[in-house]
Design a protein that fits this description.
202 residues, mainly beta, 2 domains, 5-stranded mixed beta sheet, globular
Length: 202
C-alpha cells in the first residue's frame, strides 16, 4: 500500500545488498483478495547482492515522505537449494517429485488450485513439512495434507499458534511413495499467493 511515492529502500544489514527503485505505480488487486492484505501499488527494484552474502533473512523498509514502512523479510537462499513448482501438478498422477531438504517455490495461481508433491518414504521415518507464506506477506492461507499411495490421509495441518502457515509432522507407516497436497483454505488464488515449502526428515 502507498508505494507510489517511495524514495528509498533500506536493509537492516546493508553491507552485502542494496536496492535501486526502477519504477512505481498502481497494481491490480487480485480477485477475491483484500487490497489491504495484497496491496494495490508496486515497486520494481534492481537488487545488487554480493557473492559472499550468507543465506538467511535480511529485512528491508521502504522510505517515503509519509514515513517508514514496517520491516519486511528478504530471504536469501543458497544456490542449488531452490526448486520451482512445475504445473501441471494438480493430482496424484501429475504430482511433482521433490527431494528432502530443498525449498520449493510455488504459487496457488487461481481459485481452487491444488499443488501436489510426491516423495519416497521409509516406514518409521519422521518427516516435517512446513509452508512459509503468510509470515512473508503472502495472502495465501494454506492447508497441507499428507496421503499414502492408497489416498489415505496420514496427517493434515492448517494454522499454527502464531501463523496461518501450516506445520505438518508425521511418522510414516510404511515404505513407499507419499503425496503432499497444498491448497488455499478459502479456495482463493492469484499471482501473489506465493509460498515456499520445505520437507525435511527429523
Amino acid at each position: 500500500m502507498n508505494l507510489t511515492n517511495a524514495t528509498e529502500i533500506h536493509f537492516a544489514d546493508g553491507s552485502n545488498i542494496s536496492a535501486k527503485i526502477k519504477s512505481s505505480g498502481k497494481a491490480d488487486v487480485p480477485k477475491d483478495q483484500d487490497a489491504k492484505k495484497s496491496g494495490d501499488t508496486q515497486l520494481e527494484l534492481e537488487l545488487t547482492v554480493a557473492d559472499n552474502t550468507p543465506p538467511g533473512t535480511n529485512t528491508f523498509t521502504v522510505i517515503s515522505p509519509d514515513g517508514q514502512s514496517p520491516p519486511h523479510p528478504l530471504i536469501i537462499i543458497p544456490p542449488g537449494s531452490l526448486i520451482s513448482e512445475k504445473e501441471p501438478n494438480g493430482s496424484f498422477r501429475q504430482a511433482q517429485t521433490i527431494p528432502f531438504g530443498k525449498t520449493i517455490q510455488g504459487v496457488i495461481g487461481e481459485s481452487k488450485d491444488v499443488d501436489v508433491f510426491r516423495f519416497d518414504g521409509k516406514a518409521g521415518a519422521e518427516i516435517v513439512a512446513e509452508v512459509f507464506a503468510c509470515r512473508y506477506g503472502s495472502p495465501l492461507d494454506s492447508i497441507l495434507t499428507l496421503y499414502d499411495d492408497k489416498a489415505h490421509i496420514i496427517a493434515t495441518s492448517d494454522d499454527t499458534d502464531t501463523s496461518t502457515d501450516p506445520l505438518l509432522r508425521a511418522k510414516l507407516p510404511s515404505d513407499g511413495p507419499y503425496f503432499l497436497s497444498l491448497i488455499d483454505a478459502h479456495d482463493h488464488g492469484s499471482a501473489v499467493s506465493v509460498y515456499q515449502l520445505v520437507i525435511r526428515a527429523e
